[in-house]
Amino acid sequence: MAAYFIAQYVVNDPALYAEYRGGAGPSIQAHGGELISFDVAAETVEGNPPGSQTVILKFDSAQAARAWYESAEYQAVVGKRLSATDGYAVIAQSMNAG
Fold first, then answer.
1. Which residues pair with 57 in a beta bridge?
2. pLDDT band for position 94 (50/70/90)?
């Protein structure tokens, strides 16, 4: 079952975030991920998100998404995103009704 890594945040340090993107992209491809959406001005229709930048990645399964997230390649750069942004990220399956 497909799974999605969804992150929404505000970028506070564009230079550091650019460094993150340079390393994150190749790690996503190496783990079979697909960029579905990269929107720096996503429209909020409900609630109070931390920022308007939204990223959605698709993986074959939640296990594949987690394997990418925990991979040495991604862990080498994720700290840059965490330092450069304020927000959150989740892994959501395409259909998980409990």
1. 5, 35
2. confident
What does DSSP say about strands 3-11 and 85-93: parallel, antiparallel, or unpaired?
antiparallel
Q: Which residues contact 2 (CB under 8 A, 6 or more apart)?
A: 58, 59, 60, 61, 93, 94
Query: Is residue 84 packed enough to be buried (19+ CB in 10 Å), middle (13-18) or exposed (0-12)?
Result: buried
Residue-range domain boundaries for the chain: 3-93
Of 3.90.1170.50, 1.10.599.10, 3.40.50.1980, 3.30.70.100, the CATH number of 3-93 is 3.30.70.100
The model carries a pTM of 0.91
